[in-house]
Amino acid sequence: MKSLLNQLREPIQKYLDQNENLIAPAATHSLLCINQNSPILVVTTSTRTANELAQELTSLEGENQVVNFPAWETLPHERLSPKSDTVTARFKALNNLRNKESKYIVCSIRALLQPIIANDLENSQIRIKKSDSVRMADLIEQLSKFGYLRSDLVEKRGDFAVRGGILDLFPPDQEHPIRIDFFADEIDELTYFAISDQRSLDPISNEVVIYPCRELIIDEGVKARAKALGEKFPQINDLAQKLSEGITFEGMESLAAGVVSDYKSILDYLPTGCQIWLIDQPRIKTRSVDLINTNQEFLEAAWSNLAWSDQADLQVPLDLSEELGRGGFYELPEIYSQAKKSKFTIRNLNLYAATPEDTPLDFLAEIENYGNKYEVAVEEIAQWHKEGYQVVFTAAANGTLKRFSELLNAASISNQILKNNQSFQDGVVNLVQSDLKHGFISDEFKFVVVTDKDISGQRSSDKDLARMPSRRKKSIDPLQLKVGDFVVHEQHGVGKYLELINRTIAGISREYLVIEYASSKRGQPADKLFVPTDTLEQVTKYVGGEAPALHRIGGADWQNSKRKARKAVKQIAAELIRLYAARMSAPGFAFSPDTPWQKELEDSFAFVETIDQQATIDEVKRDMEKPNPMDRIVCGDVGYGKTEIAVRAAFKAVQDGKQVAILVPTTLLVQQHFNTFSTRYAGFPVKLAALSRFNTAAQSKEVIAGLKSGAVDVVIGTHRLLSKDVEFANLGLLVVDEEQRFGVEHKEELKKQELMWMF
To answer: Is residue 731 a contact partner of residue 661, using CB atoms and an 8 Å limit?
Structure first.
């Protein structure tokens, strides 16, 4: 891809040499970066922008030349630990910088300002390969030091398990976990294995590098300082004692400033002569101030549930605040000062001019958004081609290139799909695979780059479609409770929330949630349970009937209620088994195995599927390929990828000529799902339609006619889909979203149809 842009190299280099501060549209930022001769640190306003820019630079320069340095998902003083894959990515990036392997470093302002614990990078990695001499006991000790958790079975990243002479391990940067088979003190076999059935997969012939899961590595120095910290501040002695004993726990990084010897910034790892580019400097400046203020609030509030005093205004003691405060974000002026001492040049790359002296890049402009109108894009490409412009079309998927080539051929526009290392050809539209997000045009040099996202209208990252939460808290939020609300304790059952109070016991003050239970004896006052706020995971809000009876602490009524619930669940399960048996005996349609288009759609998913999500996707597709109707319910919290499962199932059905109906309870969900499906199916010949009360009479009539004729492949609608005037030409799959919001009569009507359906 880079070779196609050679004719722009000289004018861009001239612009860089003549201007200290740069003004250019976002689509050209990666192009400006690759024309910079010295190493460069590019700082963006957000993690998403950093990821996009790193992907573009990787497409242009190769993976070995680009380092993407991520920030923690948590704040330095927040009592939550960053994800293990983030920590591992940071260690890998720092080792890359230490070895001076890459020219381009990309990070967000958050990553730039975050202090880095000054670990010994050389000793913060484990290298293993087949036939190495390694004592299993030493490896286990090192893994524990690196923050890996020992478990009976490896099921998630950051786990390891030991069974006899076999050690299973799941490094966060690996797609599959690793099985190490020892013979005495030698690695006899090294293989990947599957999470689902724990069976070994392919052997590993290359060396494997294992990086830590925790940035705070608990060595002897950390243990000693943690013990001293606990003695100095008795309020946090319990947490400090865990560190001094080498025990990892959630949120231990919030104490890092009190137990590590030194911090560094990413500038300490940059190569000599490196330039620092700040993209959108005004927003970076604002963002830095917000980060520092928010982190300071967390420093003051992080330990509030320990209740430092009996005063109404609870503040962190000044000496502890100073002790831990050095682990907070650097301020932007500190970064400028350090850059000046290290003789790093700082340049601003903004979207708009801030002063009259700023000179914009005037020979490149962004391509307009075509809003999924492929015919308009093809017409403009034909016009550019006729006028002698060199046109380049780029997409991330090779299948998209092939389909666009067919469109160009239909319009009699000569084109070629460039393979690896294939030379650029004049006089034709060159199609090349890359991760460029948006295109640009130069009228002066008669050069155009158009991307698939410019045509589909998808101007933002796929990752904006959904945000995958890293953790779903089960504990209740006491601030959301009102006096008299019913709650459920895991051990004691249903009670009534009274208040949130502070009590001092043995000189230590703590906050407690007070829950009222039924009196243990008739005529006596009600019993009260005091639950510390740091054990709220045992308490949930009651979601059953409006006025439940309060249980007695230590009584049998809570156990009886649970036993009755289990019995009811078994009865429902038996009824479902009978229903499924009847459905399985009915004839259905066996969908075809996955096609190349199916694989292309799934490869374009912006996230890495979770283990449960991938297993559910595989099970749904296997069910669809059976000659029996499918009944499947998919359960999961908001943001955990249920919609993506429906996207893939619907696409599989459409490829076999079947129609898909997606039934949702509200018009708002109709629009949300329509936008999501439109984005995911961009570039594929799938006809989508929406049917709800937002449609005009003419629009509804057109959609209904398309369903009857078979012109509409996928329809997303509310109860309107259940109307008698809605007929399908060849309905093959029905997806019901939030099925609990539909009445029994609706579901019974649906069950009469012998088709695949999924809740």
So the answer is: yes
CB of 552 closer than 8 Å to CB of 519: yes
Rounded Cα gap, residues 324 and 303, in angstroms: 12
Q: Which CATH superfamily is domain 586-758 in?
A: P-loop containing nucleotide triphosphate hydrolases (3.40.50.300)
CATH topology of domain 126-210: Penicillin-binding protein 1b fold (3.30.2060)
Q: Could you give the residue ranges of the DSSP H alpha helices within 496-590?
A: 557-584
Dihedral angle at the C-alpha atoms of 699, 702, 704, 708, nearest 10 degrees?
Answer: -170
* Tens-place pLDDT, residues 227-245: 998 888 887 888 888 889 8
In CATH, which of 2.40.10.170, 3.40.50.300, 3.40.50.970, 3.30.450.20 is domain 478-554?
A: 2.40.10.170
Q: Enter the tokens of residue 332.
A: 């932007």
pLDDT, one tens digit per residue, over 252-282 is: 888 888 888 889 999 999 998 899 999 999 9
pTM metric for this prediction: 0.64
- Give the burial string for 547-574 (b: 16+ CB within 10 Å, else e): eeebbbbeeeebeebeeeeeeeeeeeee
d(CA 472, CA 40): 38
Cβ partners under 8 Å of residue 728, min gap 6: 659, 661, 707, 708
Per-residue b/e over 200-212, b at no fewer than 16 CB within 10 Å?
eeeebeeebebbb
State the first-to-last Cα distance of the chain, in angstroms, to the nearest integer: 44
* Alpha helices by DSSP H, 302-422: 318-325, 332-341, 374-386, 398-410
> Contact at 8 Å (CB) between 536 and 476?
yes
> What is the C-alpha separation between 599 and 500, in angstroms, rounded?
53
Q: Kindly report, residue by residue over 356-388, the tens digit of the pLDDT.
A: 778 888 888 888 888 778 888 889 999 998 888
SS3 702: helix
